[in-house]
Amino acid sequence: xxxxxxxxxxxxxxxxxxxxxxxxxxxxxxxxxxxxxxxxxxxxxxxxxxxxxxxxxxxxxxxxxxxxxxxxxxxxxxxxxxxxxxxxxxxxxxxxxxxxxxxxxxxxxxxxxxxxxxxxxxxxxxxxxxxxxxxxxxxxxxxxxxxxxxxxxxxxxxxxxxxxxxxxxxxxxxxxxxxxxxxxxxxxxxxxxxxxxxxxxxxxxxxxxxxxxxxxxxxxxxxxxxxxxxxxxxxxxxxxxxxxxxxxxxxxxxxxxxxxxxxxxxxxxxxxxxxxxxxxxxxxxxxxxxxxxxxxxxxxxxxxxxxxxxxxxxxxxxxxxxxxxxxxxxxxxxxxxxxxxxxxxxxxxxxxxxxxxxxxxxxxxxxxxxxxxxxxxxxxxxxxxxxxxxxxxxxxxxxxxxxxxxxxxxxxxxxxxxxxxxxxxxxxxxxxxxxxxxxxxxxxxxxxxxxxxxxxxxxxxxxxxxxxxxxxxxxxxxxxxxxxxxxx
Length: 488
Prior knowledge:
- The structure is a single chain.
- The protein is built from seven helices and 17 strands.
- Mean pLDDT is 81; it is low at 1-5 and 200-262.
- It is elongated and about 150 Å long.
- A five-stranded antiparallel β-sheet has the order 3-2-1-4-5.
- The chain is an alpha+beta fold.
- Helix content is 27%, strand content 21%.
């Protein structure tokens, strides 16, 4: 399991740690509030990069981290779970035999890599992923969530007593099985995975996008009130008659023609001039109003075009989402159909009853001896004592659950002395070199000689079993190796 924990920066390590409450999650940011009322944000790129932030944080959660007062950013990398903590959450949440959600991380023709948590992955071979010899790339997609059954984990030696590696299989999950909720990576957080898509789920119609309300028509202002024509300046003379005032000096007064019968009255010239000015201003207002109407029509046409483009983008995005959902749903249906059509080809793996790998091995060998040797032959072929070498359990943990039963049966045949009678095992002594004339390999400390037999045939890098035969006849199991590994 590779660690995906993000290392905190040196600057963040020097800032004081503060706690905060998550107010909400928008996009790739979470808004948090400190006890003193100040707000900050948590950036997704500073958390687990493979997990969306809304699958890590939820409103109401309590978080802690280093607060950068300048950028108002809270660095929570110190509280993110490491691989060991994620494995502990998986063991605490999922019991053996439960149907659980898992995310597809990698798909090959004969294996699929599933993740129970971002750093807790399980590689499932084809015989446990689907019935028959189908290409798994036609059945699974990277990133989809599938339902898998938890199997008893296998112990993996390591520092501090080792760990229990989870194990999964997909081919025995029925359509009616309900998967548990995915684990939360932080206390109080949401499940890190959505529920797996059921095999027979029908395509959910996408919600119709409500049409955008048409913009209200803007009132078209009519022509403004005509400017009042100022009355000519009049005054009353001494004789009581009303007379028009003389025009100003800058007013245009037509010159008198020598041949004209009478001059134009000053009052009429002023009225004509004012009327011309009013008509000119009114024409300008009409042209401006016409231009405004045209501009409003252009803006409305552009708004309608933008609305249409937005609707087209939404339709294309919805269509793409539906196609993606259809692909995952059809793959799930294919898996379900293959499981219903095919019959099981092998029994379920034995339940792990011991945390000590050597104790589990001795129990499995005893069980294999009880199954292989008939009731009337057990006195003739008793199971003798044997020694487990320091590297045997570690090498056995790497072969996978599908090959362990074959190793146990081969060990029983060796211990009961029946291995030389089985031609397919190809039992022979190990030599010091690759040449046929090389001397046989003998251990200097006790004189034991090395033996080798085949566990697989006609496959690249087939497995082999190495063991020592002590001078007294006792057997010491050495290692399970690949074909090209000739070291004892």
